[in-house]
């Protein structure tokens, strides 16, 4: 497997995994796997060990909406990675970079504004690294004209 193909598949497969995460988050966001996150939010916003009972319905609504958005965006990314990115269409590199750059900046600024540092350090940083690695390691396949001419996939 070539270096490009490895990172293209990395982008595709991790996108499917993140889409699955979004789906689980949407339909079962109060599961034991997400309990530490929910408890950290409870501590930050209510100074309690768990989310208060009054917040559970709102949490379920927000997690459903957020999880659906996560699943949607990662399914779209998987489709781009599988097709246009694989064909080394430059717009796909720009689209992925712009979309994730926008998300990381907005979400991280909001996290710091509300002092939800654990989300910025754990979730945002992890997600950014997982998606930035392929973009960093294979940028030359999209932008180095000499390299592209020699190694273009028909």
Major sheet size, sense and barrel closure:
none
Number of helices: 7
* Large-scale geometry: elongated
Number of discrete domains: 1
* Spatial gap, N to C terminus: 17 Å
Measured as a percent range, the helix fraction is: over 70%
Weakly predicted, low-confidence segments: none
Structural class: mainly alpha
Strand content: under 5%
The Rg value, from CA coordinates, equals 18 Å
Order of helices and strands: HHHHHHH
Number of strands: 0
Quick check: average pLDDT?
91
Structural notes for this entry:
The protein is mainly α. It has one domain. It is built from seven helices and no strands. It has helices spanning 3-27, 35-46, 56-85, 90-113, 117-137, 140-143, 145-150. The mean pLDDT is 91.
Q: How do the strands and helices of this protein lay out in sequence?
A:
Blueprint lengths: L2 H25 L7 H12 L9 H30 L4 H24 L3 H21 L2 H4 L1 H6 L4
Helix pairs in contact: 1-3, 1-5, 3-4, 4-5
Task: Please supply descriptive tags for the structure shown above.
154 residues; mainly alpha; elongated
Provide a short characterization of the protein structure.
With 154 residues, the chain is mainly α.
């Amino acid at each position: 497997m070539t270096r490009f193909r490895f990172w293209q598949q990395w982008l595709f497969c991790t996108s499917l995994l993140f889409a699955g995460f979004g789906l689980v988050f949407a339909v079962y966001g109060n599961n034991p796997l997400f309990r530490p996150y929910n408890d950290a939010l409870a501590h930050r916003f209510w100074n309690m060990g768990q989310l208060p009972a009054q917040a559970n319905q709102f949490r379920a609504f927000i997690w459903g909406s957020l999880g659906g958005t996560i699943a949607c965006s990662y399914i779209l990314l998987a489709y781009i990675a599988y097709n246009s990115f694989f064909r080394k269409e430059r717009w796909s590199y720009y689209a992925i970079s712009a979309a994730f750059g926008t998300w990381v900046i907005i979400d991280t600024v909001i996290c710091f504004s509300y002092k939800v540092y654990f989300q910025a350090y754990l979730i945002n940083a992890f997600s950014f690294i997982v998606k930035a690695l392929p973009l960093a390691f294979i940028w030359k396949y999209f932008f180095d004209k000499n390299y592209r001419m020699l190694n273009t996939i028909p």
